[in-house]
Amino acid sequence: MDSIDERLNRIEGIIKKDSFRRNKGLGNEVGYYIFDYDPQNELKVREYISYLKNKINNNSNSSFDLIEFDLYNIIIEILREKGYLKKSFEFEKNKGRNFAKKAIKNLLKLSSESNLIVNHIKDNTPKNSVVFLTGVGKSYPLLRSHNVLNNLHQVLDEVPVVMFFPGRYSGNELILFGTIHDTNYYRAFPLVD
Questions:
Q1: Domain range for residue 165?
Q2: Going residue by residue through the chain (193 aa), what tens digit of pLDDT does each one get?
Q3: Are the beta carbons of 128 and 65 closer than 8 angstroms?
Q4: Is the dihedral of CA 120, 23, 188, 56 positive or negative?
Q5: How many domains, the chain?
């Protein structure tokens, strides 16, 4: 396997291809991809994403926008907007972590069609863009990556979506941090082998 630097450096060439952004060559599958990496490379991956976003979005010749959604930041933003952030801390302190986690999941409507995180991503994604999903590790255990992908797949199918995943993706199973097995997810393709 290539080093993390070699794998990261291949991303730009892939996402700049017209065929990637039009989802050509995927057997009419929606363009969902996973870039898995060793969690110890988290900071390097974040730095690269920031660099690539600036490079693409500040280039007047770019034919698309690169949009990043940090799942953890979305959770915090929603909790703040709903006036629930301080209450969440109080729940955890007074009633325990499991109670707080359940209350937050209910507020975010993670198991329904009105999933606030998925709707936030859908509502803030321009048509001519590539979406990067980050913050997967920071969001655990509140949010499971398969939940986001399965629900997002139902409502966002016009632009390619790349999830940056701190763990392993075997092509049919997500293993967060290399140890936590998630529900099988079959619709995504590895972005870089």
A1: 4-190
A2: 689 999 999 999 999 998 888 865 456 566 889 999 999 999 999 999 999 999 999 988 888 999 999 999 999 999 999 888 888 888 888 998 888 888 888 888 877 778 899 999 999 999 899 999 999 999 988 887 778 888 888 888 889 999 999 999 877 778 788 777 666 666 788 899 8
A3: yes
A4: negative
A5: 1
